[in-house]
Amino acid sequence: MDNNRIWVLLGKQASGDITPPELEELQNLLQQDPDAAATRTLIAKIWGIPLAPPEENADSHTRIWEHIAERIPPQRRPFLLRHMAAAAAAAVLLLGWCTWWYVHTGANSNLQQVSSPAAGKSKIVLPDGTQVWLNHNSQLVFHQQQFGRQNREVVLTGEAFFDVTHRAGLPFIIHAGKVNITVLGTTLNVKAYTKDHCVAATLISGKVAVNFQQLRLELKPDEKIIIPAAATTMIRENIRKDSTGQAPELSWLNNRLVFDNDSFEVLSKKMEQWYGVTFHFETSNLKHLHFSGVIDAEPITEALKALQLSRHFTYRISNNEVWISQ
């Protein structure tokens, strides 16, 4: 029996994100495994995690994760868990996995995490041959022993480009916040930074099915889907390619940050991810300045100087904090 599947479903039930078919599956699995059912009750008492659906917002997921982290002894909190505490958008699946990990294996975790630095990118090849490029400040988590054998499921926080190897009967599933993307051998870009408050998927080739709450939508090549955090629906768009025929969503793969009439507020969020800094605006009107251009490999000081050529503002940088003023 796949005990990890039980804890994934328990985590989704605890967060209120479980679907009726999954709830029925969970009840059937618990009937076959009395120990898991007893442990569920014990965990609920120890951690105080309600089995009823919590509030539908990111803060509720953060509270659930913090509640778990407080009860893990310091010597058993590996690097993975410290990073996942900040990844509230991925808490639904991680809650199930980490519950199973803590109760059954202690420090011998089978979860594998791959991270990219705050101002850099990483490329990895998963055990099934799937290639993944991680953008700045992004993390990918998967079950080391089960991936490629029992499932091909990963949890993404941040942004990544996937070139997925097709395998009949074992679909590749990306969990990004509350969105589940089933991939059937394809190339796509998925963006799920917590600060963005949305999840976006851009399909380059192949076919994917996107599941969000009770909705399911299949994407075609050159289509993009956006799911805002506070929304109850999905927004489908066609990709707007640039003059070279490339999708702007993939510019980061070529070390290029492309922006087209972006407000300074929107651009600052992109630059935060690009450079690993935090922007502060001393006056709100500066947020509404608009810019178009491309940032390549130049340092942030050179990028800001280039922006000053088209709009008037001043800046100062201190300890990765960027202050924008008149």
From TrEMBL:
PANTHER family: PERIPLASMIC SIGNAL SENSOR AND SIGMA FACTOR ACTIVATOR FECR-RELATED, PROTEIN FECR. It holds the Pfam family FecR_C. Residues 256-324 form the Protein FecR C-terminal domain. The keyword Metal-binding does not apply. Keywords: Membrane, Transmembrane, Transmembrane helix. It comes from the Bacteria. This is DUF4974 domain-containing protein. The keyword ATP-binding does not apply. The lineage of its organism: Bacteria, Pseudomonadati, Bacteroidota, Chitinophagia, Chitinophagales. The chain crosses the membrane at residues 80-103. Residues 113-208 form the FecR protein domain.
